[in-house]
């Protein structure tokens, strides 16, 4: 458990209907103390049914004692496209740890695309990352992630990454992965980069067969391991998935 | 009722006609992708820390579910959501079919809780069988983990020029890991208790292996 030095930054984004011609995008950032670093949601574009938001880091992320919470909700029939201006580095925490918590609720027929940038777990970092996503009927999720264990030429830090994607019909993907300097080489076969693209609620696009795992409960995961980032590249699959769920805006 | 200890011996015996010889626990796929003979003991440890816990946990929860007369479908779904590789899900179900054939013929009542599942996984079938034949959760977890170790090692002897005594030594060295799996999963009761600690590299190897045509083992 974190000590009292914990700094929490909670970012909330909710896309809901409005009769003003544009959907309503409410964003709030709550800090437990003024020194907490956070992800600031910047509205890049929005129209009647969709919004595009960039999650911009404010302050140094991610350090010991940081607790970053991201809470997203997209109401029925609306769409949110999330982008990040750059990757995140979890730095050496010298015995401390940090938490990165994402919770997402997608209403009926809602769409979320999130083009995640690399999350680098530097040597000495200790991070608990959790992602919980609930999809109502007809909702579509397209999520890209890239986990990098250690910066160039250094050992992996420790990361516990838990993922739970659930629809009304039950769990689609449940994963609880712990990587550190000891376990990462075996679990990842000597690789240090794991990139994935997850698509739930829409059929897998044609032509993206490589590195593809068809999930039992519907949904498709593309996953690729590499020693260097370019070896774990899934640009093709992500592009196909993005075109499949429509171009979005911006 | 037959002594559960004898049931345990029976189920752990590779001579049981349930298709164990068709399985390498992804060792064949791993060897094709650069793993060597010296890496096999490490491969055993990795499995016991990851995918085998999912299997053993699923079996234990299936057992608990049958004991309280609950439906097995949520257990099966929980297993499938934790097993991203279609090749691994398929390999498990093919083995389950052979096991179920034996169980249905021998103990028809024991197989009954599985009737609602179209293609149950091997772990779910083993759990239901354990419940029906009085095998405890700890024994069941040990069975699943031990069987995984023996599957890898038996396959290693077919795939690599190894001394059987060396390989039997690897089995013995892996036994503490088998006991750890038991400690880690035998308390589980609900589908959400099933560990979700897969090994992404093993899943990738399993997928690659399923796509190759020249192979000794089905999975």
TrEMBL record, chain A:
It is found in: Cytoplasm. Its main location: cytoplasm. Keywords: Chaperone, Cytoplasm, Nickel insertion. GO terms for molecular function: nickel cation binding. It comes from the Bacteria. Pfam families: UreD. InterPro entries: UreD (IPR002669). GO terms for cellular component: cytoplasm. Required for maturation of urease via the functional incorporation of the urease nickel metallocenter. Belongs to the UreD family. UreD, UreF and UreG form a complex that acts as a GTP-hydrolysis-dependent molecular chaperone, activating the urease apoprotein by helping to assemble the nickel containing metallocenter of UreC. The UreE protein probably delivers the nickel. This is Urease accessory protein UreD. The gene is ureD.
From TrEMBL, chain B:
GO terms for molecular function: nickel cation binding. Keywords: Chaperone, Nickel insertion. It holds the Pfam family UreF. It comes from the Bacteria. PANTHER family: UREASE ACCESSORY PROTEIN F. This is Urease accessory protein UreF. It comes from Nocardioides albidus.
């Amino acid at each position: 458990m974190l000590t009292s030095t914990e700094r929490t930054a909670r970012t909330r984004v909710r896309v809901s209907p409005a009769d003003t011609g544009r959907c309503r995008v409410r964003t709030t950032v709550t800090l437990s103390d003024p020194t907490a670093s956070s992800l600031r949601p910047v509205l890049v574009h929005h129209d009647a049914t969709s919004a595009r938001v960039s999650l911009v880091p404010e302050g140094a992320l991610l350090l010991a004692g940081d607790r970053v919470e991201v809470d997203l909700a997209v109401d029925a029939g609306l769409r949110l496209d999330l982008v990040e201006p750059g990757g995140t580095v979890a730095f050496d925490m010298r015995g401390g740890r940090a938490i990165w918590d994402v919770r997402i609720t997608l209403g009926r027929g809602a769409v979320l695309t999130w083009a995640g940038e690399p999350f680098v777990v530097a040597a000495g970092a200790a991070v608990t990352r959790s992602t919980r996503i609930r999809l109502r009927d007809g909702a579509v999720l397209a999520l890209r992630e890239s986990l990098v264990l250690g910066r160039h030429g250094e050992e992996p830090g420790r990361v516990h990454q838990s993922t739970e994607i659930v629809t009304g019909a039950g769990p689609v993907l449940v994963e609880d992965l712990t990587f550190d300097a000891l376990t990462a080489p075996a679990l990842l076969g000597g690789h240090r980069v794991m990139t994935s693209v997850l698509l739930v609620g829409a059929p897998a696009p044609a032509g993206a067969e490589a590195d593809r795992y068809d999930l039992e409960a519907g949904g498709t995961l593309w996953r690729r391991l590499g020693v260097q980032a370019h070896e774990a590249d899934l640009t093709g699959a992500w592009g196909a998935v993005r075109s499949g769920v429509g171009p979005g805006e911006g | 009722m037959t002594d559960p200890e004898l049931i345990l011996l029976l189920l752990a015996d590779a001579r049981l006609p349930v298709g164990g010889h068709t399985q390498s626990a992804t060792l064949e796929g791993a060897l094709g992708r650069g793993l060597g003979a010296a890496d096999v003991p490490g491969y055993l440890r990795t499995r016991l820390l990851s995918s085998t816990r999912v299997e053993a946990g699923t079996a234990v929860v299936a057992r608990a579910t049958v004991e309280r007369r609950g439906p097995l479908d949520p257990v099966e779904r929980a297993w499938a959501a934790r097993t991203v590789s279609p090749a691994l899900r398929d390999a498990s179900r093919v083995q389950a079919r052979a096991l179920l054939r034996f169980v249905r013929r021998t103990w028809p009542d024991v197989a009954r809780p599985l009737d609602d599942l179209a293609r149950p996984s091997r772990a779910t079938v083993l759990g239901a069988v354990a419940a029906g034949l009085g095998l405890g959760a700890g024994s069941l977890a040990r069975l699943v983990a031990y069987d995984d170790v023996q599957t890898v090692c038996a396959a290693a002897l077919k795939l690599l020029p190894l001394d059987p005594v060396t390989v039997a030594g690897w089995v013995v060295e892996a036994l503490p890991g088998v006991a750890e799996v038991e400690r880690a999963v035998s308390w589980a009761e609900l589908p959400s208790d099933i560990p979700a600690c897969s090994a992404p590299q093993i899943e990738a190897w399993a997928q690659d292996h399923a796509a190759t045509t020249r192979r000794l083992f089905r999975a």
